[in-house]
Structure formats: C-alpha cells, structure tokens
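During the reporting period the student researcher (J.K.) took over the structure-prediction task from the postdoctoral fellow and processed the backlog of single-chain submissions. One of the processed entries is reproduced below for the supervisory committee.
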Amino acid sequence: MIAAMEGFKQQRGDLFADLRANPSGEKWCKGHTALADAAVQGIYDDIIAGAPVAVVAVGGYGRQEVAPRSDLDLTFIPLDEHDPKNDEAVRALFKRIIDAFEALEWPVSYAYRLISDAPALDDKTRTGLLDARLVAGEQDALDRFLESYWASFPTAEFLISKFKERADRRRRWHDTPRVVEFHLQEGAGGLREIQCAQWFDVALGLGLQADTSVARETLLQVRNVLHLVTGRKEDRLLRTRSSEVANVLNADPNDVRELVMAAGEEIAREWDRAVYHACRATFQLSAGVRAKDGKCFFRAEASLAEAAVGVCRATELGLRVERAAISPDLGDAALITDCLAAGISALRSLDRAGLLDALLPEFAASKHLLPRDSVHEFSVGEHSIRVVGALDLMRADKEFDAAWGDVANQRPLYLAALAHDLGKVDPDKPHSEVGANLADAICSRLRMGDAERLTTVWLVRHHLTLAQIARTHDLGQPGAALELARLCERQDRLAMLYLLTVADVSSVAEGVWSPQMASAINELYAQTKTAIGLEVTPADPAVYRSAAIRRVQSASIGKDTEALIESMPTHYLLATPKESLPLHADYLSRARSGGTVVEFHNNLESRTTDITVCRLDLPEPGLLSRILGVVYAFDVALHGLRAASTTHGEPIALDVLATSFQREALPASLSSFVAAAMRECLGEPGKLDELLREHGKDPDQRQEMLTHRFFEGDLGILEVETPPGRGMPFRVTKTLAELGWNVHVARIGQWGGRAVGRFYLDLPGGVLTSGMVDSALAGGGP
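J.K. obtained the following structure tokens:
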C-alpha cells in the first residue's frame, strides 16, 4: 500500500502540473476526485473488503468538485448497526485513510452514521448528504440510509436554513457579484448558490433544468487556479492574487474579474429563480399545515401548536398567511412558546391568521385597548408587538452584544415583552402586578418549566423598575446600583431587564427614547452589572467619607483641591469625577471673592449640558429654586442636579445641573443668556419674578402634587409625582425652600403622562421624619 500511496502522490503532483499548464474547472475537479476515489477504494479493499459498510463521499467530494486544496468528507454507514465488528472495521479503515492522505497532504474528515440516525441529523450533516455518492463498500447500506433520510426529510426547515445561510453569507460577502474581491464559493452568485438551487431541485422536484454550465465552469476554473497559486484553500479572489491567477489563465487580470462578475450575475439570477419556485412548491410546513402556490393551507383538525409552527415557518419563507379556522386543541405547548418567542414577523403572521387571539386570549383583550396616558402612540397590544420588534432590532445591534451574551434563554424575555402591559386591562390596580399574574397564568397554560415561568413573571412585574431608578435616583451614589442588583440577583436577569427596558421605552412613541434617558439607563446598567454579587453591608457615614476621599485624592492634587475635598460633603465626593475637582476648587476661590460662577460643559454622548453654578450660599434655603427658576424661564429641560455647600467657613454653594434644550445640548447663544440671567437673578429675588413674567411664566403658581413618598435617612428621599410641566423642579424646590429644607440631589423625568422627581433632602439643624413631610405636604405645601 505504501508503494500505491507513492504512486498517488506522483499522480496528484502531475494533476497540479497539468492544471498550471492547461487550467480547467469541472474536468480537473473530476480527475482530482477520481484520484481520491481510487485511493479510498484501494485502502478499503486492503483493510475490510467485503465488510457490510458503505464508504460515502459527501459535500464537495460527493459532487466531484474537489479543488486543489479542498478537504475530503467521508461518511461510513454500516448495513447492520448492531454488528460489533463494524465499529472495529471502520476504526481500522479510518486510521489507514488518515495516515495515507496525510502523506498526500490532503485533509480528510469522517463521520459514522447509522441508518437510524437519519431522522435526527443536524442541518450541516443533512446538507452534505444531499450529495452522497458511494465510493466503496456496500451499496445496500447507502440505499437503506437514503430511504430513511428522504422519508424524514424536513423540507420546510431545510429551506429556511438555506435561506438564512445565504442571507448571512450575502451580508458578509456583499449582496452583489459586482464586487472587486469576489468570493467564489459564498458570495452572491457564487458556487454555493448553484449548489443550493440544485438541492432545492432534488428536494422538491422543481425540474428547473437551468443551464449555468458556462458560469459554473468559469468559477470552478478560477477557484482551482486560485488554490494552486496560493497553496491553500482560498476562495476569495483578492486584488493581490488576481494577477497570479490571470497569469496562469494567460489573461488580463481585469478581464478575469469581469468574467467572474458576469458568471456570478448569471448564477445569482438562477438562485433567485430557484427561490421563487421553491416558495411555490408543495410541501409540508408542519403536521397540520402545508405550502402550495406561495400560500399556507391548514387542515381543519390541526392543533393550535401545529398551526402556529406552520405559520412561523411560512413567515420565514415569505409565504402568504391568511385567516384560518383551527381546532381549539392546544397541542404541544412547548412549540407554542417557541412560536411566541420567534419575533415580530411571526407574531404579525399569527395575528393575521387569527391564531394569536386563540393562543393568548389575554392578549386579545389588549389589541384595541387605548392607553390611559398621553404618551403612548399605539394601543396596548400594538405597543407590545412593537416592543418585540425592538428586541429583534437590538439582536442585530452591536451596542447590545454584551447584554445578549448574558441571556442564555431568550424565551422568557420575548414572552415578557408580549405580556408586560397586559395588566392595563384593569385600570384600578398597578398594571405591572396585574400583568405578572396574567403572565403566570399564561406560562402555566403553556406548561413552561418553573425557571422560565418565574423569570417571565419577574420581568413583567419589574419591567418599569430599571427606568424608574434611572430617572429618579442619583446615579452618582452607590445606592441606586445596589438596589437594582439586590432585585436582579443574577446577571442574566439584569441583562433581560435592561433589554426589555430599552425595547419598551423606545417603542412608546417617537422621541421618548432620548439621548438623556439612554445615557442614564446605560449608566445604571453598567454600574449594576459590576455590583451584582458584591456583599452589601450597612453604610457607616464615616467609612463612606473615608472611601470617597481616597477615591479623589492623589499625590498630584494641589492645596486648593485638597481644601475642596476637606470642605465638601460625602455625597459630592462620591459623585464628582476626579478630573473636575481642580476646576471646582477654582470656582470656590472665585466665589469667595463675591462673584457668581456659571460654567457650561456639553456632553456629546447624552446630548446634554452640565451647568455649574458656584457662589456664596444664601443664609436661608432658596438659592437652588432661584437657579431652577432661571432654567425654567428659558424653557431649558432639567434631567438631574447635584447641589452641595462647603461645610467649613462661610458656606459656598456648588450646584451642577444636567440640562438640555429641545433634546439637544444648549446652543452657545442660549448659554450666554442663561449665564447673564443667573448672575442677575441669584442675588435679587425680585429679578427672578420679573424674568419669569417676561417669558410668560407665573412665578406664584403652586405645584400640584399627585402623590408623594418619603424615605428617612441621613439624606431623606422625597419622591413626588405631579402633572407634566417643565416648571415642576422650580416649583417643588421653591416649596421645599419655603419649608426650610435643603435639596442636595434631584432626578427629574417624565413618564406615563406624569412628571416624576426624586429629591434628596435634609433639615438644617434637625432630622426630617415621614410624619413631618406628610404633614407639610398634605395640602400640596405651604
């Protein structure tokens, strides 16, 4: 056998030399294939001649398209899978084949398939076997295997997988053959599209009888030469190799590329024709649904699960789906869950067929239900479907790759997206709680496992939480991320809640998903991702302050910055970027001289402007409300603020406001007007009233508070809900100042037709209690 292998090696070398002298496509590939066949047959005869095993070439080897550097794919199929001698024989045969072809520098891969394996093959294996060809051994073994193979061939799933594969390859290698560096195998109009068209013809009996022999020969010839000149399995005709290929072909490089493009266009047209006819062929979509003439038809006795699977497959194939009369029998509930989690296109088709109402009666009640706020643009049901669509888009967006990477099972996320607002059918209760109960009932009816059910219900119950914390909490303090981390407990739940939040908010109406909201939600998600798993211990203020000082101190800070650190409260040190400290120290120095510092810094990512105001504080609370009054006068939107005063010597206020104007950073001209008004109004109360009236605002309007909650602490936290309006921060802080309370941090947002705010407060010289706050705000304030 060694001598025979030396002979094969010489013959292969002769074939390569002949290719260089007389380049060709199919003829050379068949000669190369025949050489491989002879080697395999010789080894088979030498090792296990007469054994009831089929040695089968699959893939390109089966098609006899073996290029110079193509691998060889072999499959061994025993006639009697229960004969223990088969395994030993195949092992010996494979070892000899590997050794022999290694000497030829010819890679070989193999698989061992039983006849009983045929119904459960993966897509790649099933595709390769479409080109199965007996090389040596028992023909009956291959025939019996193929009989089982075709009896269980999943036509619809096969078509879907090939459509997806081609779409993916076209995205990667361009969707046109008119590309300078054409991929001869996987590009649009490449050899793979001829192969797919042939597979469709075999699987569906299309009878296309297309003549692409010239185009195919062109690509095979160029690929053979490309392998030859590169010495490797290179299927992309790169610029750097086109001259070498053209030299072997005795042609101009540009002429070669033009020939390849023309061949690709011819093959691409044939691919389009094959797709058209495949989608109009007759085949089973599921046990209860079949495709014919580009439409799907339902058996009257089909279960809901069978019908849903058929509709989802029809959708992926682009078939027309019409309304159907279906049996109320649920069928395999697990299949239904997969269909409901298949994305927006599947849901639209299920809805058109009337199946979505049958599968989810709870959803049917929401389809035409109008939202009770002025923000949502669509009905409750339509909004939910659009949330699913947003998730689909996010799966293709690299910005969310890390979050999707933490999601092992997407079914709870997609089902929660569909169910998250179903609780709005009951206007008298919180819709997240009602929705969680409905989601629990849905999951139980669909027989979902406990883990999936609990996660789905949890997502529906808490689908508002991440956005609420991002809108109302001070993200500069550790408490916000720790609160969310305690709720989520696991990275996968955090990731799903984050993705659901983004999809939900961005589907409410155009403009609701603003850069400012995106920045806050992304910041909170990143902080919480780090916080999950950390041990949480009760906060000691002294320990917090020591940690905050260590965070901002370094050997390079100057005396003024050191003095700033010593004089500012802990919440300022925790929330202020280290690089801002020297600037703030300079602001304090200027404010001590009696000036009012007003500085602006634009954040390009969030499209916001930070306004920093620094001046001697007033003897009584009220400076912050004046600052916010100026902001209100110029219709500047406030998203959050941090207010701090020095604790040593004469108090100096240092307040930082996150703002925007018409969803963008403040224009320079507006910033100059705001700065001038700040300097004029902060020292003289009457000036602010004049400014507000000049801009059509009522300085004496009181703020209506719809609800409020107070949480006691070193800094008490007041949460309020009010009717919408840009003047809310000014009016609320004015009320709090009149009560003698200091505001240190605030977060402001709009949601569900209401304005929401969270204010971190203290009482100079005392401690605020819930009773004091409830009593003071019982009538809306003083």
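The committee noted the following: Residues 253-278 form the longest helix (26 residues).
J.K. will present the remaining backlog at the next meeting.
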